[in-house]
Amino acid sequence: LAALLGQPPPGELGELRALASRCHGHPFALAVAGVHLAANPHRSPADLITRLNTDHSATLALHVDEASMGGILEMSYDDLDADAARLYRLLAVHPGAEFTADPLAAALDQPVADVEQGLTRLADAHLVTAVAAGRFRQHDLPREHAQALAEQHDDTSVRRAALRSMIEWYLRRTAAADMAINPRSRRFSPVYEQLDTEPFSNVEHALNWFALERSNVLASQYLAAEQGWDGLVFQLAEAVWNPLRPSYFADDLVQTQQLGIVSAQHCKHILEAVFLTRLGFGESNRAHHGAAITA
Q1: Axis-axis angle for helices 67-78, 45-54 (nearest 10)
Q2: For residues 123 and 87, is the Cβ–Cβ distance under 8 A?
Q3: pLDDT tens, residue by residue, 152-207
Q4: What does pTM read for this prediction?
């Protein structure tokens, strides 16, 4: 705390020790508390301790031994402007814990540059962490906190629409990667009609993007299946085929094609037969030859 705040007045050293104790020495809580005090010089460590001791609403979604963390997060959230607060709550809906601004911008219907500025604001508040240029990650505790706030402030229909927008973004981008990797394959999904393939200049670029986003894309398909969005599920099953094959993630190949089969059956889509064939390929790669023959 002292390192974050510079040399504190001698009279505040005891208050800083008390605040550190109240945060249970949690490094993340201490970092957020230090940033909060630095950004709000009119508040003292004693003010934060009082808030942590009296504001229990901030900790409802967190475990008892993380109560101090909830209070610190609530104070950081209270300091956000309306746009940054909305963005923070949106992160609770994103399919994965790591992200760029692009899918969030699609959900918010805002320019990517504006969302990047919002993510920088959240990083400054220690509510997300920058892991690479333009790429961020949210710690489990802020994610739980954001989920509780989203459920409190945003209607279910709003959260559901935001999730669908992000899944659709991942579908379009994965389909573009698929086309860059193998432009000659025959495609059947509607997403390939008038698809913008400009994001990827070559095969390596597309494969590198998918390697970074694989967990988000797979989570998108799973969440789409959970929501009953069969059209998105079977299109993702087709789109991931070429990006997944070079990586030899056979389990992922099998799981994505299994989900695709069920959704294609629901939609009576021709891709059911394609997915059955690809499921056999995936099972063979797992050395499950009996399952491959059955598929």
Answers
A1: 110
A2: no
A3: 999 999 999 999 999 999 999 999 999 999 999 899 999 999 887 678 999 999 99
A4: 0.78
